[in-house]
Amino acid sequence: MATDYKIKVQNVTKEYELFKTQSDKLKAFFALNRKPVPHFWSLMGISLEIKAGETMGLIGVNGSGKSTLSNIISGIIPQTTGIVDVRGDTSIIAIGAGLRGNLTGLENIRLKALMQGLTNEEIDQLMDDIVSFADIGDFLYQPVKSYSSGMKSRLGFSIAVHVNPDILIIDEALSVGDDTFYQKCVDKITEFKEEGKTIIFVSHSLKQIEMLCDRVAWIHYGTLKQVGPTADVVKNYKSFVKWFKNLDKKEKKHFQRRMKEAQKAFDIDAYQAEAVAVRQEANPEEKNVAAKVKHDFYGSVISEKMSGGNRVLTFAVLALFVLFCWVNVSGHSLSEVVTNPTNLIHPTEHVSVVGSYDKSK
Ligand SMILES: Nc1ncnc2c1ncn2[C@@H]1O[C@H](COP(=O)(O)OP(=O)(O)OP(=O)(O)O)[C@@H](O)[C@H]1O
Q1: Residue 71 alpha carbon, nearest atom of ligand 1
Q2: Residue of the nearest CA to atom 18 in ligand 1?
Q3: CA 308, CA 361: separation in Å to the nearest integer?
Q4: Among 62, 57, 70, 67, residue whose Cα is nearest residue 241
């Protein structure tokens, strides 16, 4: 792989546990002896480099993993394994990400710009431009949860392009706006390209991809099917779509089920062993390849899962917290409760009269 990249992802995977309900998820968090939960690998090992100043398109059918990958690159979600290296003094902005539903449009502008490192004075100077580009009228003063998807996209896009990011990630933002807004966005993206910014552009519109992207990565059910010049990848993708459309209903379902089953059955240990074998074969003299690959896989990853020990610790801290609250409410001192725990269920007189009042007054 070349070294002059702006963004590099290497052996990136993303695993989800498919809990049926939120309460199942919560129970599993505290359970010491967890029942097995079905797993799903949204990404099964993506390696890709994007050069500075390049516009890279991400294409693929619904659910193939495009948003998962762009969210990992923008740091919104962590990868399960692999390296994500974003180089240089970089600020990334992903259009749809980070809008808070309970805040108004104006509040969201300030919040996102502050998170991007702008000062309040800088935001004040940009505010008129952001508001006028978004063009959503009085909705600016309404909570974002009341916006249509087109309005959210207008606001997100406007903030993103005005805070002057080094890397811009555009995930399906152009598909929901009307024609006027679409043209404004295309002009802005073209301006960004001319300024040499790096852009990741996720879209189902092959016309937009062909118009804007230098190279394209085709993500196919969690794998990188092809990466290369736009015309080549789009041509192959179109052939796949044509092939798929020609299948009858039963064949389509069968194909989709087979792909999803493969994503459930993905074996991360086998994938890691394969990476070791590939690296060793490329450089037979290299020592400690297994340990180095292990480090590449897990060294920069923040684990979303808690170890058994950490779960016990969290549980103990919570239990202590509840106990201290209870001691406090009981009105006894800690030493009184320690010497006689039944004090916990016999509050002091002081506590028992709290909230009562003297009817004779
Ligand atoms: N939080 C989650 N929990 C479980 N599965 C998830 C989660 N988020 C995404 N997935 C699954 O990961 C897969 C990839 O989703 P992703 O949104 O990245 O696809 P996409 O290519 O962007 O799709 P689309 O073109 O429809 O936007 C899908 O099968 C999706 O159901």
Answers
A1: 18
A2: 65
A3: 58
A4: 62
The protein residue whose alpha carbon is closest to atom 26 in ligand 1 is 62
Tens of pLDDT along 292-308?
999 999 998 866 666 66
Alpha-carbon gap, residue 279 to 266, rounded angstroms:
21
What's the pLDDT at 218?
98
Q: Where do the CATH 3.40.50.300 domains begin and end in the chain?
A: 5-90+166-271
CATH of range 5-90+166-271; options 3.40.50.300, 3.90.1150.10, 3.30.110.170, 3.90.550.10: 3.40.50.300
pTM over 0.95: no
C-alpha torsion 225→65→71→238, nearest 10: 60
Pocket flag, ligand 1, residue 63 (CB < 6 Å)? yes
* Closest listed residue to residue 8, CA positions, set 44, 47, 37: 47
Question: Could you give the ipTM of this predicted complex?
Answer: 0.98
Return the closest-CA partner of residue 100 out of 162, 160, 146: 146
Backbone angles phi, psi at 122, to 5 degrees: -60, -40
Nearest CA residue ID for atom 31, ligand 1: 63
Does the structure show a pLDDT above 50 at 355? no
Nearest Cα to 344, choosing from 353, 333, 356? 333
14 lines ligand 1 (CB under 6 A): no
63: CA distance to ligand 1 center in Å? 5
Using a 6 Å cutoff on CB, does residue 203 contact ligand 1?
no
- The protein residue whose alpha carbon is closest to atom 6 in ligand 1 is 16
What 3-state DSSP class applies to 317? Answer: helix
Ligand 1 atom nearest 172 alpha carbon: 27
* Atom 3 of ligand 1, nearest CA residue: 16
